[in-house]
Amino acid sequence: MMDIQTLAQQILASDRKALAQAITLIESSLPIHRLKAEELLGVLPHSQDTVRIGISGIPGVGKSTFISQLGSWLLSKKKARKIAVLTVDPSSPLEGGSILADKLRMQELARHPDVFIRPSPNLGTLGGLARGTRESIQVLEAAGFETIFVETVGVGQSEVHVASLVDAFVLLQMPSTGDEWQTLKKGILELADLIVVNKADGELKQEALRMKKMLELSFSYHEEGFHPAVLTCSSLENEGVGNIGEQVEHFIARQKSNHQFLERRKMQNQFWFEEELVWCLKEEMGHNPHVKKLIDPLRNKVRKGSLGISAAARRAVELLLH
Amino acid sequence: MKTFWRSDWESLAKDELRREGAESLSRESQEGIPIQALYSQDDLDAIGFVESFPGLPPYTRGPRASMYFNRPWTIRQYAGFSTARESNTFYRQCLAAGQKGLSVAFDLATHRGYDSDHPRVPGDVGKAGVAIDSVEDMKILFDGIPLDKMSVSMTMNGAVLPVLASFIVAAEEQGVPQEKLTGTIQNDILKEYMVRNTYIFPPEPSMRIVADVIAYTSQHMRKFNNISISGYHMQEAGADSAIELAYTIGDGIEYVRLVTERGLDIDHFAPRLSFFFGIGMNFLMEIAKLRAARTLWYEKMQVFHPKDPRSSILRTHCQTSGYSLAEQDPYNNVVRTTIEAMAAVLGGTQSLHTNALDEALALPSEFSARIARNTQLILMEESDLSFCVDPFGGSYMMETLTRQLIDKAKMLLKEIDEAGGMTKAILAGIPKLHIEEAAARKQAKIDNGTNTIVGVNKYTAPTDKALKILDINNKEVLQAQKASLETLRRTRDEKKVQNALMQLSAGASDPHANLLQLTMEAMRARATVGEATEALVKVFGRYQASSYSVKSVYGKFMKDNPQFKEAHRRVDAFNRKHGRRPRILVAKLGQDGHDRGAKVIASGLADLGFDVDIGPLFQIPEEAVRQAIENDVHVIGVSSQAGSHKTLIPQLIDCLKKEGAHQIKTVVGGVIPPHDYEFLLSQGVGAIFGPGTPIPECALAILNLLENQT
Ligand code: B12
Ligand SMILES: Nc1nc2c(ncn2[C@@H]2O[C@H](COP(=O)(O)OP(=O)(O)OP(=O)(O)O)[C@@H](O)[C@H]2O)c(=O)[nH]1
Ligand SMILES: [Mg+2]
């Protein structure tokens, strides 16, 4: 078994292999690994001077390509020194396996010496995804990666989690003027700090511009408060990506000057504590024989229909807390 | 005598079937076309069959009226290896032994526009084709071969400009003017993005290059086929006959549109368009495919209003399917190739390549090449196959099948039209996805025994006696090429070269320049293939096609297979024990663009529960190692088909050691001749999986390897 002190040392020295193995440890489903991971996270420092950028959007919208371009831009403009990218791919619900292909579209970035890219399977659980990603971010930051990208496929609920992991949440959109954009979950749009209409090239360019207009219009109906900027770019042709980089920079700078930056992280910590608490309780309830004994009779009654569902749940909580 | 009807036959046949426990009088082909047990006049009536004749529209029955009656098809064996000198010797032997035309196979460094001394290609030089760096090599390649008489076909797409230019200049310096050259340049870039993977530039400039080549040759080389629109590679990558047919015709139309949009008259270039199809083991379907292709091409070309009948006549080369040939019990391959060759001939091909029996092991040896050539000579000169034109014409079955294939292809083409034509569809990844899905399905059907492959999944032979195969010493070739490159660069007029290269770069940004003409100047001044390519890369950039993966197709067809279930269980157990799934990086190293095996393995292993990282094409060992370490995989699985394993695998393992990644194992799959196994194992390879290995077997062996040491 790995010695945690040594591993921590290597991580601080930004050793690629150690970083990779630490992330594996964090993602492991074995309880013993969990303890080790917690131990590791306990000894690693928390760096505050980092920027975490979340990139989300439907499959194929161009997230990986966009990250590759934006990352390369940040490096070439010396706006970032070391960049890490965490991507999450869906595991098959049936067979459990996954095909991790995001790196294919980040080859230029992946070759850079100061870049670390790690694709992960989402393991079928939202909680697992977010926990692994959150802790991996901490490890990477400890190793001096001060710009962190998180790529996730946008599927409803997961956005909330990812948005709560990052300092800037960028939502990528496909250009389309059809009805589709209207069906966009309003809730998701409101999570975004920045909206990017990607693939603004070739024949799609006009549509992308129209899409941008429509999105801006739809925001202007909400009178007050913050409106995310809407921008267009072509990741494929590397057009407008630098501009988006600058917008992200402005956003972060504004957050910092408003003291929103650290405030947001604090809120996120609290959010995650509460999430973790629920997960831990759930897990405990799954494993603990004592709990099982208390709850099983109620479960049976609910199944038979002799007790109402919510009444049974309330009763269960009462039993557990006494 | 009483008259009988189809219904009489049908009830009789159904009775027989009932007694034998069978259900239906029709089975479905892989294209989704019902193949009936019997066809009759009713079927011809149903399709509205109209009699037609060879050499006359719509050319279903053949492009020429007399077909093979007086002039048989051309025996054209695709070959090339090692240095130009060695390939030249081989060509001359073949011509002396009855071969009628040449077909040059270039090595992968040349295909991808790299000189032999480029750091990304050391494993590929001279391995899977002949290494050509300049006009000097080209002159040696055709030394003593009269280029005014010998037709030469060249499979070149990505680096078509410097290679075709070198050919023209070499001929010119041999005293043969360009207008006398006969032969074919493949020049079909669309299928490179789809399946063959030797593209260099992005699609848009690549299409311009195709058009420049067509424009130049149709003016100055009137006897030269300016393109070979190829479906063969699609079939080899997994496409069924309908997909192959549809996308080939689709590509053809796309090229015609491209060139006519440039203002060239259709009749000026269309008679010189040629085609290339693959011929697999579905004998009847493949004959129907060639008949369907001619018909469909004729139909589609009418939109362009050609006046010259030759503009809408599809002439084609064919190659038997290498994919259908097995490593196991290899003499069976002669039989398979014979069946396929017969289909090509009965379908009315204009020229033919027959594969050698050691296809799944290495490039052909002298022996296996002779048998392959003789297969055609026997069909041509011993049998009566060529006496009669389109002997299947009018057959209830064949005419019905031909029509059904045409209809099926039209449906596929509709999808392409909706996507905005072939180029756009390819960029969106539509055709490739269809082809890979078909490949995964095919693999599953072999692995679960639905499709029989004699000697592989049924009737296996006790032990094979090892064949003597061709082994190319790639280090020697590399040295020789480096030496001649050095001489070339020392003795040429450097200023002239640089000037010509600058003109070429300038031409790249000038849409009115003809890039073939400019490249000829550069090659004449003794620029190298790599330098000419680099001059264009400066303006166009190097392209990497994006790639998608099919999921759950393999698993769906395998879910009841006992070995699949066992492997799945073992993977789950691994997951429970180690806290994560076995994770593998499926890597492609060097310029080897064969990705069918890698794709199939990746999706198969994922369906078995592995976490699979896909490496990009064209990685060098250092890049693969970095990816493996960052992703913290348990094992790197290199998929190698183009023969660079003896150079690149030791490099990979060295690099893993250097990085201290001792925990990462290496396995290798693909075309690895058995006599290389020991060497690779001694280098530290954990397991080797040759052609024909079922995917669950690979999975189990990998798990064994991992469990033994963790
Ligand atoms: C299909 C094919 C093609 C297709 C490729 C399509 C594609 N996108 O993949 C096309 C027609 C385009 C093609 C082109 C060429 N080909 Co080719 N091709 C083949 C062929 C016929 C079959 C390979 C194949 O896909 N088989 C099906 C797959 C599923 O099987 P597989 O790859 O063996 O994989 C199985 C196992 O090996 C194992 N496996 C493989 N990889 C891995 C990885 C892991 C991790 C694991 C666990 C297992 C595993 O599992 C798989 C399932 O059983 C072989 C001959 C043969 N029969 O093997 C020649 C062959 C590989 N080609 C050859 C050559 C020379 C070429 C060219 C270079 C010719 C040229 N000079 O132009 C070109 C260039 C291609 C390029 N860009 O690299 C030579 C290579 C010679 C050598 N090794 O010395 C071969 C051997 C034919 C020959 N005898 O001449 N080819
Ligand atoms: N035309 C165009 N295509 C793009 C652009 N960005 C990405 N693409 C293409 O879109 C496809 C998907 O790109 P990815 O970067 O893999 O998209 P993704 O959102 O990361 O996809 P997943 O990770 O599978 O959800 C690829 O074929 C890209 O080449 C763009 O700006 N314009
Ligand atoms: Mg992605």
Q: Are there runs of chain A of 5+ residues with pLDDT below 50, and where?
A: none
β-strand number of chain A = 8
Helicity range of chain A: 40-55%
Number of helices of chain B: 28
Quaternary assembly: heterodimer
Structural class of chain A: alpha/beta
| Rg over C-alpha atoms of chain A, rounded to the nearest angstrom | 22 Å
Terminal-residue CA separation of chain A: 40 Å
Describe the fold and architecture:
- The complex is a heterodimer of chains A (322) and B (710).
- Chain A is of the alpha/beta class and 322 residues long.
- In chain A, strands 4-2-5-1-6-7-8 form a 7-stranded parallel beta sheet, sandwiched between helices.
- In chain A, helix 2 crosses helix 3.
- The radius of gyration of chain A is 22 Å and the shape is globular.
- The two termini of chain A are 40 Å apart.
- With 710 residues, chain B is an alpha/beta fold.
- Chain B is built from 28 helices and 16 strands.
- Chain B has a 9-stranded parallel beta sheet. In chain B, strands 13-12-14-15-16 form a 5-stranded parallel beta sheet, with helices on both faces. A two-stranded antiparallel ribbon of chain B has the order 1-2.
- In chain B, helix 6 packs across helix 20.
- Classes of the chains: A alpha/beta (322), B alpha/beta (710).
- Chains A and B meet through helix 2, strand 3, helix 5 and strand 4 of A and helix 23, helix 24, strand 13 and helix 25 of B.
- The site of magnesium ion (MG) has 5 residues of chain A, from helix 4.
Provide a short characterization of the protein structure.
With 322 residues, chain A is an alpha/beta fold. Chain A is 54% helix and 14% strand. Chain A contains 13 helices and 8 strands.
Protein traits:
heterodimer; A: about 325 residues; alpha/beta; 7-stranded parallel beta sheet; 8 strands; about 55% helix; globular; B: about 700 residues; 9-stranded parallel beta sheet; 5-stranded parallel beta sheet; 16 strands; binds cobalamin; binds guanosine-5'-triphosphate; binds magnesium ion
